[in-house]
Riboflavin biosynthesis protein
Amino acid sequence: MELVTRIADVPVRGTGNLIAIGKWDGVHLAHQAILRALVAEARRVGGQAVAVGFHPLPMQVLRPEAAPPMLQSLEERAELMAALGVDVHLALPFDRALADMTPEAFVHQVLVGQLRAQQVMVGFNNTFGRGGKGTAETMRQLCTPLGIPVHIFQPVRADGENVSSTEVRFAVAKGRMQAAARLLGRPYAVRGLVVQGDRRGRELGYPTANIRLEEGRLLPPHGVYTARVTVLGEPRKLQPPVTVTPRTGPVYGAMLNLGVRPTVGGTELRCEAHLFDFRGDLYGRELQVEFLEYMRPERAFPNLDALVAQLRADERAAREFLAGRQGAEG
């Protein structure tokens, strides 16, 4: 898949561009329904599936003080789209000029004039144009006279709620990781570089990877988690226009502590993962950490012996959870 930030860099292929528009914040199940339909229709008519979004997200520009933490990086968003078969992700740089564009100007200048849209797909609650005045129905009213079909997708429901980025954030913020996974269609994950720690875990018999997380990412509550860790390898920085493919690597079950380590007098936030059955050096490698299940809150222990005893109990619980999950999956 091609990741581009300029309309001029969108390749010209096939019978034309089929466009899906959204913020794609999290690429959750509702987003996936639109993108799968986009790809299927593009393949049917011989066109190109183009997902149009924004980077940074509009709220980060318009009201940065109220902008919620990020569910994913642009790279992660692009990889998820690539896995779904999208041909191009156009991540438009959101700025004041774009924010001030009227719905009419966006359709006539961007969708028709520059992208030459053949079809448009949007979610039921999509807004666009100055002040968010354009709605999904506005899109239909503007595009239909131009001969451009507009497909409006209705809500996708899970756990009795409409799937949305807001619901994902709520679940993650509460530590309800399995609920978040049901909304996303996959476990909630973060990525980070392994950096030098104080090696205290190694001294306790539980060596950990100290993961430096990206600022502004949504994190679950402090505590101990059962996790799954993918060793992605050397970090990469995407410089659009660029071809994006999903990154993979060896996968390990893990237990993870997210917090300040009160037993040893820590004060700064750390994300430390102990990978089960791993042997080797992870310094300088990028890891993807999937939060599978919240096990317990972080707490101070009276001494290191008590901490080690709890770590052994955590390991047993995490391994049992992972074994049960593996059995359920296959």
The radius of gyration is 22 Å. Residues 187-329 form a domain with the Elongation Factor Tu (Ef-tu); domain 3 fold (CATH 2.40.30.30). The first helix runs from residue 29 to 45.
